[in-house]
Write a structure and sequence with these properties.
The chain is mainly alpha-helical and 165 residues long. It has a single domain, classed as Four Helix Bundle (Hemerythrin (Met), subunit A). Helices cover 64% and strands 2% of the residues. The protein contains seven helices and two strands. The protein has a two-stranded antiparallel ribbon.
Length: 165
Amino acid sequence: MPAVILDRAGRRAKRIDFGSPVMRPAPQDVDRHLLALRQSVAALRRHTGLSPRRLLFNPDRRRSVERGLQLYTRSLIELTGRIGPAAERNPAAYPSSIACLTAAGVLPSDLEERLRAFATRGDALGKGATRLDRKEMVRVLDEHLDDFDELAAHVERWLAARRPQ
């Protein structure tokens, strides 16, 4: 039985019981978003090892990296929305999605800290509101793709433990 949580106005707030042995969202929805997240990371891996100079002279590759990062961010937000929000969290943005997954016990806190380094840019990229410069793109490709894969692995393990057998 989930604990009773009061919202800021003192009313009873709805809360999903993340300790439940059965997964609440439709498995096919969750699987679709998890697959999209994995595919976006795989597409980004094709661009690792680039120099900022190569991105300067290849606008198609630059757009491909930017689009891959947008897809990763949107997939994570959608996936978090399907798993369900943690208490008083709104997983409508990248930083709150990471916090929601940590509060739900899906992600360890050390991974949350590493993902927060990309959080402000990831949120803006997911909305299409900003562009990364070439050096930032190369840094994200070099430093964060393993974190993105680790995030997907944690989500997969968490979901597997909650699927009906």
